Amino acid sequence: MSYRPLPSYLMLQPSKIEGLGLFTLEDLEKNEVLGVTHISDAETTQLFRTPLGGFINHSEKPNCKLYEIGRFKYLRTMYQIPMGTELTLKYTMYDPTES
Questions:
Q1: Which domain, by its residues, includes 71?
Q2: Domain count along the chain
Q3: What's the whole-model pTM score?
Q4: Do the domain assignments include residue 55?
Q5: Is residue 61 situated within a structural domain?
């Protein structure tokens, strides 16, 4: 058994948005759950990114969104996404203009 930090249908590739991005290797259906992106520490409530959550770039017109169940944040597609498309989120967890 080998460790695979991302599902087999996703891969990292150079992004036109920033650095590396998360891309799909196959067509994805609307509302498809892709996995856990963040986990909240039960004692400190500090948020930790998983490999899946580490390379999702921001977009004002995202094709994915997060939803939360307990301590876990999951990535879900908002509509059908064709193979080869970069997966994106609208970042709302913090204000990047704050210092």
A1: 10-89
A2: 1
A3: 0.83
A4: yes
A5: yes
In a domain, 83, yes or no: yes
- Is residue 39 situated within a structural domain? yes
Structure token digits, residue 35: 């996995």
DSSP labels, the chain: ----SS-TTEEEEE-SSSSEEEEESS-B-TT-EEEEEEEE-TTT--EEE-TTTTSPEE-SS-SEEEEEETTEEEEEESS-B-TTPEEEE---SS-TT--
- Write the CB contacts of 98 (distance below 8 Å, at least 6 apart in sequence): none
Which residues have a Cβ under 8 Å from the Cβ of 26 and sit 6 or more positions away?
A: 9, 83
Q: Indicate the pLDDT class of residue 93, thresholds 50, 70 and 90.
A: low
